[in-house]
């Protein structure tokens, strides 16, 4: 059956291989043309977004990945920490997801889901973050392994996307307010999965006297501590602490401190460059939709959550939890996963947590800590399935590890819930479909009511 669609699959394989920067430049340019922005402005917008993503990747990979990752590894070696399953990191996890049969067809399936949701007015998001469809493929691939049924795997991947799209719409106002990203939503399979947890825990904290009044806000810290409350100094301090815990010499400690300072300063600047390219396309898309369709409300451009990792609270809390997560892995009874490859991507967990808790650093830390604890147990539970998925695509298991896992997406609470529900076969799929369609209908009613208020 797949042979019939091989030319289509080959095309999307080519698109996927372009990488996020090139693909986003092309997609944004085409969107601009489709919405009547003009040839010159569309190409400029696309290139600006592509340059923004290139800058983000350089900062994240070269400064954060090549400095924070080795520091975390040295901490693990220094304290002699070993566990049965190793966190292989999101690049390997994405390769496993895209290498699966579900991953082969996820891009056309994801595009179809987005189009249908736009046509039925069950989403406000035009999800151009095509590369990150791998998150949905990962969920579907594990569901297919659990059930031995490829069709169930594809359906579960599609339902995963429906839920994430609804959550992206709902959290878009938080993104606009906290991250200063107007017209943007974040339909990211990992970051957005923590939005419900943050919403619930934030309400719980609101009900606890004294605790609900605790706050750490960057602006207030800057007012109180002056220059020492600024992101550039916060990054340096965290770098000094992590470098010391890793047992670095003074040269490497100082290098890490400067690198983390650079991350906290440069990521927001790259995000602002992205917005420079996106604003004209977002405005044109909203105008076009409102002129051609009724009850559509505001339209959002769905992007990779990398655009939001630069918030100083997000980065500060994530960096604090890097050493904490390593020691949690050893101390938690029953956990078999050693955080490793994804330690540098912990900020992605907080991209929506920070806006939902209204930039309250204390609450972000509480939500993050509890998410890490539960995430390690989720990663432990899913490790055998992920190892099977890795072997299915001939992934080389690291020497000395009997199982592989990851924080992104092996510790994803939504992935875990959907995969374990799929164990009930089509009955489980029916339960997930009812939930997904129920959320989509609720979102449609919310969009219509929002449109009435705007008009």
Explain the overall architecture.
By secondary structure, the chain is mainly alpha-helical. It has one domain (2-454). Helix content is 69%, strand content 4%. The strands form two sheets. It has a three-stranded parallel sheet with strand order 5-1-6. The mean pLDDT is 83.
Overall, the morphology is globular
**How many beta-strand elements?**
6
Name the strands of the widest sheet in spatial order: 5-1-6
Q: State the helicity in percent bands.
A: 55-70%
What fraction strand? under 5%
Q: How many domains make up the 3D coordinates?
A: 1
User: What string gives the helices and strands in order?
Assistant: HHHEHHEHHEHHHHEHEHHHEHH
Low-confidence stretches: none
Instruction: Give the CA-CA distance, first to last residue.
Output: 48 Å
Secondary-structure-derived class: mainly alpha
Instruction: Count every helix, treating DSSP H or I runs of 4 or more residues as helices.
Output: 17
Largest sheet descriptor? 3 strands, parallel
Instruction: Determine Rg (CA atoms, Å).
Output: 21 Å
Rounded average pLDDT: 83
What order do the helices and strands come in, and which of them pair?
Layout: H1 6-17, H2 20-34, H3 39-78, E1 85-87, H4 90-99, H5 101-119, E2 125-127, H6 134-147, H7 150-179, E3 184-185, H8 195-206, H9 218-225, H10 231-245, H11 250-292, E4 300-302, H12 312-331, E5 337-338, H13 347-350, H14 353-356, H15 361-392, E6 403-405, H16 413-421, H17 426-454
Parallel strand pairs: 1-5, 1-6, 2-4, 3-4
Helix pairs in contact: 1-5, 2-3, 3-11, 4-5, 4-6, 5-6, 5-7, 6-7, 6-15, 6-16, 7-17, 8-15, 10-11, 10-12, 12-15
């Amino acid at each position: 059956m797949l042979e019939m669609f091989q030319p289509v699959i080959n095309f999307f394989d080519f698109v996927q291989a372009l990488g996020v920067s090139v693909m986003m430049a092309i997609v944004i340019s085409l969107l601009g043309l489709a919405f009547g922005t003009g040839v010159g402005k569309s190409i400029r917008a696309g290139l600006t977004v592509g340059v923004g993503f290139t800058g983000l990747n350089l900062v994240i990979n070269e400064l954060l990945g090549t400095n924070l990752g080795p520091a975390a590894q040295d901490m693990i070696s220094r304290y002699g920490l070993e566990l049965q399953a190793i966190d292989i990191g999101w690049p390997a996890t994405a390769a496993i997801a895209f290498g699966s049969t579900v991953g082969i067809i996820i891009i056309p399936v994801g595009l179809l889901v987005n189009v249908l949701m736009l046509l039925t007015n069950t989403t406000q998001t035009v999800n151009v973050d095509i590369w990150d469809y791998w998150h949905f493929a990962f969920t579907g691939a594990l569901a297919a392994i659990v059930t031995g049924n490829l069709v169930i795997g594809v359906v579960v991947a599609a339902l995963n996307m429906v839920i994430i799209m609804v959550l992206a719409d709902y959290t878009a106002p938080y993104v606009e307010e906290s991250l200063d990203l107007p017209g943007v939503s974040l339909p990211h399979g990992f970051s957005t999965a923590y939005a419900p947890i943050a919403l619930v825990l934030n309400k719980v904290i609101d009900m606890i006297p004294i605790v609900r009044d605790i706050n750490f806000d960057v602006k207030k810290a800057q007012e109180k501590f002056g220059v020492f409350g600024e992101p550039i100094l916060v990054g340096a301090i965290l770098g000094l602490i992590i470098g010391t815990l890793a047992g670095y010499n003074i040269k490497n400690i100082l290098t890490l401190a400067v690198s983390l300072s650079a991350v906290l300063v440069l990521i927001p600047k790259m995000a602002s460059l992205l917005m420079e390219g996106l604003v004209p396309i977002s405005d044109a898309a909203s105008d076009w939709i409102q002129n051609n369709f009724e009850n559509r409300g505001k339209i959002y451009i769905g992007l990779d959550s990398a655009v939001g990792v630069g918030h100083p609270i997000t980065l500060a809390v994530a960096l604090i939890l890097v050493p904490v997560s390593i020691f949690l892995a050893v101390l938690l009874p029953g956990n078999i996963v050693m955080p490793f490859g994804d330690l540098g991507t912990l900020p992605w967990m907080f991209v929506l947590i920070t806006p939902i808790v209204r930039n309250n650093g204390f609450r972000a830390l509480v939500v993050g800590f509890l998410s890490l604890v539960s995430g390690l147990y989720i990663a432990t539970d899913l490790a055998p399935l992920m190892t099977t998925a890795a072997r299915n695509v001939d992934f080389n298991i690291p020497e000395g590890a009997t199982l592989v896992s990851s924080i992104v997406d092996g510790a994803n609470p939504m992935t875990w819930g959907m995969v374990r529900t799929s164990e009930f076969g089509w009955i489980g799929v029916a339960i997930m479909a009812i939930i997904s369609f129920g959320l989509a209908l609720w979102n449609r009613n919310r969009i219509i009511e929002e449109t009435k208020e705007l008009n």
